[in-house]
Structure formats: structure tokens, C-alpha cells
Amino acid sequence: MKRYKKTGLLIALAISIAAACSAQQNKFLFTTGIGLIKSPGGLSKVLHPSVAFNSGLEYTGKTNWFAQLTLDFNSLKYDQRKLDNGSPYLFQRTSSSLIQGAISGGYNIYFGRKWLISPYAGGGYLNIGEPRLVMKDDVVFRQEVTRQGGIFGKAGSRFGYKTKIKFLQTIYLDASWWQSPVEIQGARLQGLSLFVGTRMSM
Fold first, then answer.
1. Which of 2, 85, 143, 198 has the greatest count of CB atoms below 10 A from its CB?
2. Which domains does the chain show, CATH number per domain?
3. Amino acid 80: pLDDT
4. Residues 6+ apart with CB under 8 A from 166
């Protein structure tokens, strides 16, 4: 089942990239934003919302198709829920780093000259660290970070407003849902990402 899901994700990613690249490219745009990630269900007891940063490079065509390369740096509040071998303690009220790199393809839909909505889909690779408190002997404990990575798929949309300010050419709200087969404390890694950001011509 997991093999079919991975295959489907790769096919969807290839289609989105091909669709975006088939357009007549017009210009490069730089995007940057700040926001948070909200995890659902049981995962919300492990990962809690905290600050997230997003930056990207967008390639936009004259036909309004676009391709986007994004890199997200997320710092999540972390509570360990299951004991590990070699440690009699749960490590809680600490932080976990999540890095996501993705390629997405989408389409800009304009409403008048100022407003636009940009649905998109894609996927990429993520890497997350889980902090651990490991007992080395009767009196010595050491903090370690266990990292794991895997692919993920995402789909979302941006809602933007074009301004006359040179360094804030387009202000947008970006909302996306993403999911990965990577498991954290027995729960599949997934979440809702919300960002407020700007898009500027390079």
C-alpha cells in the first residue's frame, strides 16, 4: 500500500512540474513568509505549533502557470509520548526542528488587477529531529537528537493582493496540507501550514 502511495506521489509531482514548465516562462519571483504548523489528531500531543519560516523561488509563465521551489525551516514544540530503549524518561517541553524542501506547480487566477488566488500541488523531502534524554550511567544523562527523513506530498493555495510598494509587491496568505509516510511517536507526520508572506520580482 505504501509503495502505491509513493508511486502516486511521484506521478503527481512529475505532472505538476511538467505542467508548470510547459508554459512560456516570463520572470523569476522570490517569496518569503512566516507562519506556523498545526498537527492533527494524536500527533498534536507530540508536536505543538511554533514559529516557521518559508522562502522560495518562483518561475512564472505568461499563461499564469508557475513552478516553485520552496524551503521551510520549522521549530516545533515537542513532547515525547513513548519511552525508548535505554532511557527511563520522557523528554518533554523541548523543541524539534523540521526542514522541508519541495517543488510545486500551480496556476495564478486573477480577480481584477489587485487580487489573485494560486492553487498548487507538489511534493518533496523532509527531515525531522526528535530530542532524546539518554542515561549513560547512574548519574550522567546526555541529550541526543535522532533524525529521520522521507518524502511528502502537499496541496494548497495562496491568496494574494498586489501592492504598489516595491519591496512588498504581493502580500499573500498561504495555506497548505502536507503528509508523509514518516512516523513520529506512532503517528504519521502531517500537518496544516499557514504562512503570511510577500512575493517580489528579482
1. 198
2. 2-83+98-127+152-201 (2.40.160)
3. 84
4. none
Q: What span, in angstroms and rounded, lies between the C-alpha atoms of 28 and 41?
A: 38
Q: In angstroms, rounded to a whole number, what is the distance separating the alpha carbons of residues 199 and 118?
A: 12
How confident is the model over 119-154, as pLDDT tens digits? Answer: 999 999 999 998 877 777 666 777 788 899 999 999
DSSP code at position 84: P
38: phi then psi, degrees, rounded to nearest 5: -115, 120
Residue 129 near residue 144 (C-beta atoms within 8 A): no
C-alpha separations of 109 from 14, 15, 103, 182 in Å: 22, 19, 20, 34
Model confidence, pTM: 0.80
Instruction: Report yes or no: 149 and 181 within 8 Å, Cβ to Cβ.
Output: no
Task: Specify burial of residue 8 (Cβ count, 10 A radius: 0-12, 13-18, 19+).
Answer: exposed
Please give the backbone phi and psi of residue 8, each rounded to the nearest 5 degrees, phi first.
-65, -40
Q: How far apart are the C-alpha atoms of 32 and 131, rounded to whole Å?
A: 28
Q: In whole angstroms, what is the distance from residue 162 CA to residue 172 CA?
A: 9
Q: Which residue's C-alpha cell is 512588498? A: 168
Name which of 165, 182, 178, 186 is nearest 52 in CA terms: 178
